[in-house]
């Protein structure tokens, strides 16, 4: 192969079949070829001396720590030889370019590039603005204006207080003096008012003069800032237009076109677009791909060292839709109805409400691609029924349903007031040292990687969970989880996050390691019957080993 970026497999792969279809990048089991390619990249990362990047794996390393997503793309060249490409997301050791890794699709940092030239012009604007903002005459004018304002306010306020006191004094005198003596008091009142008016005119004149001295500079500064803003906007749009991705038909499509002029920050910098663009540019056929995390997890997120992850949805999905056009891909698992063939067990039912035991991998309400759900099946029997709360698709357990809008509203009010008590049982992938505790970590959606949730102390919504250990066995812990709030993925994130239990639920494909199922079950619910006012506790146990 002509390029050194094409890595031949070091291991004998002759017994491994080439997949018929390319990896579905947003949910996949890595193909054996991708696993081997990833392991060979990981072996390199463990021994390399080509760059210095603090992944946070060595406790002796100090300073800024940032783990990194790496990607491998298994490809076939024009000689039908199999190999693979390497890529990293974003920058590595503060650089876009590294030997052995495919380059970024569009390198803004390249010397003599359009971006660098325009950046130089923008920096000149910054220097001019900074020079004006720190000009001694400008600073003196600003200081003089502030002092003038302060002095004007003080003197005018003093005169107003004098008028107020004089008015009060004259009011008392008017009670005791004869009518012919009141003329002098009226004159005093008029003179004080005239003095206030003249003082206001005097200070307005001086404030205007002081403001004009400042305005000479601010007008220049604002004009430079507006010119800088326009140039920056033009540069950004130019970059979005030039930042284009190829597909197998050699058709380029820009960030501007893909995101209709408003791409999210970092779009196109992930490993997957880099790998595919390089492959198409060099006539390499994509066979399979995988991405894995290397290093310490970022704050707020749950990333495990060496674990495989899907491509992000917010930034990569629109780009890869273009890049993978016409390439046969594995079936989208999100379009597969995993509830097909599963039955809904009714645990409790009366004239007003019912509770069902939702199986795992069964939607509570219709999704974007699949309509089969608890809601649609129940409505087929009870057209006016409404689900009061929801469970994640992967979570099994009790769901409460009102048979009429009136009952639904009364039950929903209990959830809003947090009068409903729920208990979940979960099997954790590790051993907890303590027997019970509480977790208080605010959560919000990951804007660029739905449906993931992240811990965010700045913008997250309050989320609290209480937990108790049931038993420890085989390096696993069975626990009760009591959600105080009801945020999306709350129990899963609170279990997995380092500031929570730091022990993910077994089978959690988003925050832990994928398994045969998510070992999380809504086991018990206590609420007040909306009609009889009776306190009901309904329980449905589960054996995760069955």
Could you walk me through the main structural features you see in this protein, from its secondary elements to its overall organization?
This protein is of the alpha+beta class and 546 residues long. The strands form four sheets. Strands 8, 9, 10, 11, 12, 13, 16, 17, 18 and 19 form a ten-stranded mixed beta sheet that branches. It has a five-stranded antiparallel beta sheet with strand order 1-3-2-6-7, with helices on both faces. A two-stranded antiparallel ribbon has the order 4-5. Strand 16 and strand 17 form a beta hairpin. It is flat. The relative contact order is 0.10.
Number of helices: 10
The dominant shape is: flat
List the helices and strands in order: EHEEHHHEEHHEEHEEHEEHEEEEEEHEE
N-to-C span = 52 Å
The total of beta strands comes to 19
Weakly predicted, low-confidence segments = none
Strand content: 15-25%
């Amino acid at each position: 192969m002509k390029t050194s970026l094409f890595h031949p497999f070091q291991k004998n792969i002759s017994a491994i079949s080439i997949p018929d279809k390319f990896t579905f990048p947003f949910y996949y089991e890595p193909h054996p070829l991708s696993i081997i390619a990833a392991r060979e990249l990981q072996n390199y990362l463990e021994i390399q001396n080509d760059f210095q990047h603090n992944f946070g794996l060595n406790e002796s390393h100090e300073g800024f720590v940032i783990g990194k997503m790496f990607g491998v793309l298994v490809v076939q060249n024009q000689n039908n030889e199999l190999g693979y490409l390497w890529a990293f997301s974003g920058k590595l050791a503060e650089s876009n370019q590294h030997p052995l890794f495919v380059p970024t699709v569009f390198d803004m940092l390249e010397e003599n590039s359009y971006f660098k030239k325009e950046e130089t012009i923008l920096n000149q604007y910054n220097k001019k603005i900074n020079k004006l903002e720190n000009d001694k005459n400008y600073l003196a004018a600003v200081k003089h204006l502030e002092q003038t304002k302060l002095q004007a306010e003080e003197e005018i306020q003093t005169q107003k207080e004098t008028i107020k006191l004089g008015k009060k004094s004259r009011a008392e005198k008017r009670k005791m003096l004869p009518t012919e003596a009141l003329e002098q008091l009226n004159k005093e009142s008029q003179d004080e008012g005239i003095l206030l008016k003249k003082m206001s005119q005097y200070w307005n004149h001086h404030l205007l003069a002081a403001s004009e001295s400042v305005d000479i500079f601010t007008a220049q500064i604002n004009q430079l800032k507006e010119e800088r803003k326009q140039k920056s906007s033009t540069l950004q749009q130019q970059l979005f237009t030039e930042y284009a991705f190829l597909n197998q038909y050699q058709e380029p499509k820009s960030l501007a076109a893909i995101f209709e002029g408003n791409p999210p920050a970092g779009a196109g910098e992930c490993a997957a677009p880099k790998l595919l663009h390089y492959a198409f540019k060099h006539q390499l056929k994509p066979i399979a791909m995988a991405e894995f995390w290397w290093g310490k997890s970022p704050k707020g997120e749950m990333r495990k060292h060496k674990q495989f992850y899907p491509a992000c949805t917010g930034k990569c999905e629109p780009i890869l839709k273009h890049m993978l056009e016409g390439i046969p891909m594995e079936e989208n698992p999100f379009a597969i109805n995993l509830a097909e063939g599963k039955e809904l067990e009714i645990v409790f039912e009366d004239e007003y409400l019912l509770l069902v035991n939702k199986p795992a991998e069964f939607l509570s309400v219709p999704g974007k691609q699949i309509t089969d759900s608890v809601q649609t099946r129940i409505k087929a029997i009870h057209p006016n029924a409404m689900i009061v709360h929801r469970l994640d698709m992967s979570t099994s357990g009790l769901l409460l349903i009102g048979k009429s809008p009136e009952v639904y509203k009364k039950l929903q009010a209990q959830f809003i007031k947090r009068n409903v008590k729920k208990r979940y049982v979960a099997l954790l992938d590790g051993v907890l040292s303590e027997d019970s505790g509480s977790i208080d970590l605010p959560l919000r959606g990951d804007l660029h990687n739905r449906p993931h949730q992240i811990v965010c102390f700045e913008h997250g919504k309050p989320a609290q969970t209480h937990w108790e250990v049931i038993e420890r066995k085989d390096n696993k812990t069975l626990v009760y989880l009591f959600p105080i709030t009801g945020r999306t993925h709350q129990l899963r994130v609170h279990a997995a996050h380092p500031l929570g239990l730091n022990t993910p639920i077994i089978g959690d494909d988003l925050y832990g390691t994928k398994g045969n199922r998510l070992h999380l079950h809504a086991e018990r619910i206590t609420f007040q019957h909306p009609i009889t006012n009776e306190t009901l506790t309904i329980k449905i146990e589960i054996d995760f080993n069955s």
